Amino acid sequence: MAEFKDASLWMRLAFLMVTIGLLLDLHGLSSGVNDVYGDVRGTMVIAYLCFLVAFVLALCLIFLDELKGNKAALICLIVFALIAGLAVIIGVALWGGNSRYYSNIGTYPAMLLCMAGLLDILGGIFAILEIAGVKG
Questions:
Q1: What's the pLDDT tens digit per position in 86-136?
Q2: 57, 59, 61, 104: which is closest to 84 by C-alpha?
Q3: Which key words tag this protein in UniProt (predicted)?
């Protein structure tokens, strides 16, 4: 079983960004995206599932010796992190586009979800730097 300090800088940063993004996504979804259209709900479900997969992959890449340096798992982390970030941002854009019909759409959940999407995209970029072999 590996330790957090044994991982490279880029993997540690990717793990932290994906973890914080997942927490912000959970808080943003629980505080305001309940009564929205089906397209927004669909993109948020896709984003949430991709967040979970990216989080589990980041956990496994850092703490399991069997996956340390596994290129296929790193590529999957990159793909799921970027899809999650883009899906959240698309969902927030769709949600904001429908705000002229409803006055109960809050800015706080939208800000949390945008930050979650940006952090997950940043986590994917850090994973790209890890797979490219950039020294940190």
A1: 999 998 888 877 777 666 667 788 888 899 999 999 999 999 999 998 987
A2: 57
A3: Membrane, Transmembrane, Transmembrane helix
